[in-house]
## 1
Amino acid sequence: MTSGATLKRRLTILGSTGSIGTNTLDVIRQLGGRSCFEIAAVTGNGNIELLAQQAMDVGAELAVTADERHYDSLKAALAGTGIEAAAGKSGLIEAAERDAGWVMAAIVGTAGLAPTLAAARRGADIALANKECLVSAGDLFVNAVTAGGGKLIPVDSEHSAIFQSLEDDQRHAVERIVLTASGGPFRTWSREQMAGVTADIARAHPNWSMGLKISIGSASMFNKALEMIEARHLFGVQPDQIEVIVHPQSIVHSMVGYTDGSVLAQLGCPDMRTAIGYALTYPLRTKLDVERLDFAKLSRLDFEAPDEVRFPALRLARTAMQRGGVQGAVMNAAEEIAFHAFVTGRIGFLEMADIAETVMESMADRAPALTMEDVFAADGEARARAEETISVNEKAA
Ligand code: NAD
Ligand code: MG
């Protein structure tokens, strides 16, 4: 490793072919590749060529496609390499259960929950990019990590910033968590303007280069809604201790306010590799080839209050946190279905929040989840209700 420290970590990357996954592999390469990291498993979905190439590049033991239909082509692509191939949900669990001390959880959506949980239960340290795990399963997920004996290190840039700004022995003195939000491409747009946008327009984020779902979620601010709930469970704060502030330059990645009036922040250029590197080498810091902040060239840092009327997702996150129980799972599942309906042209941009709210209202009285099965049941019911709402709206149109 370039910092001079010796670090040999055995790592599995769940979701290696995505935006976080490929950035993770770049960080691993920068930190010394095989001399510092041994890769137990990598997983992807439809991009078999990239998955097989990654597995060969890093010398993984196992490569898994989540889609069973691609098993034969993955096996063919890996023929003669000695790398094992597997597929489907059971293949993902097999990857998560390999004896790697560290797991990068970078599958998008609720599909990431079961494998990340499997890794947590066996005691792996989890570098957590997949925010949906925490939004859906909340404290049950955190408790699984704690019971397994592993650490949970956030990769989401805001949560990494908060994690880095938290003084371990002063947690009792935390007054508030301030999540920054870029405001996305529609920060200054009216609802009328947003009503007709396509997925191609909505996915063009001004500062960050990311996967499709999170890019659309940044435009609708559903991503920030998920991050509010993520922060609640990661840092054990109350809903009214979580603030969101729009900061269009994405330089201040988030902040922690203390009872003495101090505010600690973490700053940097918008590049996920910093947060990924921190999570993979924690508690060490290492040397990364990412752009440095040039303060003399930073003309200004702007902050403005978020508009919960134009971006109702933020209000929905507060509702979900106040209601507690399975409302996080319900909001997340309904939003995932609404996201797919938006990108396939079935519903408009603004309808995503309407559908999430309708489903949340219809399931407001559900009992809190005592087990993961309760979480999966609420998730399944919310998906079915969201689908039904979309179909009913389509027939009415
Ligand atoms: P992405 O769409 O680029 O990649 C997702 C990965 O998940 C890919 O490897 C894909 O093959 C895999 N995948 C997709 N569907 C799957 C399924 N059904 N089963 C198993 N695997 C599946 O997504 P991303 O932008 O890298 O985001 C990954 C996670 O990290 C998300 O939860 C996102 O919210 C979070 N995150 C991303 C960023 C970012 O900069 N991209 C920042 C913060 C947090
Ligand atoms: Mg984020």
Note: Residues 4-154 form a domain with the Rossmann fold fold (CATH 3.40.50.720).
## 2
Amino acid sequence: MKQNNPKIFSIILAAGKGTRMNSNKPKVLHHLGGKPLLMHVLEIAEKISQNTGVVVGHKADLLIESIESQWIKNLKQAPIWIHQEQQLGTGHAVKIALQQLKQHIEPQDIVLILYGDVPLIRHSTLKELISLCHNHPLVLLSALLEKPKGYGRIIRDKTNSVMKIVEHKDASAEQKLITEVNSGILATTYEHLENWVNQLKNDNKQQEFYLTDIVALCVSEGGGVGAYCIEKEEEIKGINSQIQRAELERTYQVRKIKQMADEGLGVADFNRLDIRGNLSFGEDVFIDIGVIIEGEVVLEKNVTIGAHCILKDCHIGANTIIKPYTTIEQSICGTNCIIGPYARLRPENTLKDNVHIGNFVEVKKSSIEKNSKVNHLSYIGDAHIGTQTNIGAGTITCNYDGQNKHQTDIGNNAFIGSGTQLVAPVKIGDNATIGAGSTITHDVKENTLGLSRPKQTEITNWKPHTKS
Ligand code: UD1
Ligand code: MG
């Protein structure tokens, strides 16, 4: 290829129905690691190329709407959507794409074909593949597989040169024994590709226009086809069923978690952690089994996450311990906190350093200052709690009157006795004490005891009811 620095244009094929998923939504919208398959491929395409086109067909409107409304913000550049009304084969998909991309590509630009349902291809592999374009008019990514069933086979001659690709369904018994398979991923120039896809025919078992037939066309024109053969099957694995999706999910998780472990993350078991987003971590962080990390999560140094916690979009300060079965969403925890077991932090909480939240405590849209504790069976919603304050077991901030939410403000060094209801809006001053079992409907001033407990009644010689 003559041009010194040709641009690279990625075309992602994603028009197929994905029948074997047995699902109502387009295959490439199914998730891997918390994001659509197509987003994985779009992100890798963005790394390797200057521009990307995506061929869409089955439920195209739903697919585009979903990607554009929720995911496109993660990309530097929006892709160009290419509509393939009828799915007549991979060769047809590329032909339609080239027609629609004409004004965006120069003849000498490199076109890289990727698959929307092959999400684990590595950037380094694609770089190697493209570097071969300097010496070959067409380069393929192939792999040696123990179980090549279903894939197109690479046919080589006696001198080991690539001659053609035969699809599994069209292969002879002898060709089916070949273990070098076509990944589908390839690179060539726009002008070559345009020339070849215009010559494709659909005289095969599936009556489809096979993109793979461009290999034989290239050879017939005297071109040497380059094949970059990789050993890791995971990189070229496509997802066609829910089983394959789940298998590749684990592959993806283990790959990602091992990379983090290599950078110092302590994990109990690679197979029992799921990261569906981005995790940043400091030194000596440890994550026990069954944990799910979603969105953007930051764990500062020495944080411990107990078994079966779910952490979504949160920041956990250094030395904090999150005990088992705790759920934290959109919240910030300071340093040296102890949260859980079985705590639930709903969105918009800020907990300062050394705060303790214990079992069966739900906290929502609240801020809790340093050294304060809510240790048992409480609901804290729309509240501010000062420093050194202790909230007794079973305290409820009654924040909702059926129409509106109201604020509860509790000062520093306050003591809220067990079984208290704080009917918002209400303020409890610094150093105030609330007697256990109170229903507090008015503000309680600082240094004051607030008590609304009815006087105890005792009826002597009481006989318990007997069964009639
Ligand atoms: C293709 C290759 C095969 C290779 C395998 C690797 C061809 C003819 N065969 O087979 O050699 O081993 O991938 O996984 O290319 N698509 C469209 N429009 C269409 C048809 C397909 O966009 O009209 C998209 C699909 O959505 C999918 C991709 O192209 O993302 C591959 O199509 P698929 O039908 O799955 O090809 P395979 O039979 O798997
Ligand atoms: Mg396929």
Note: The mean pLDDT is 96.
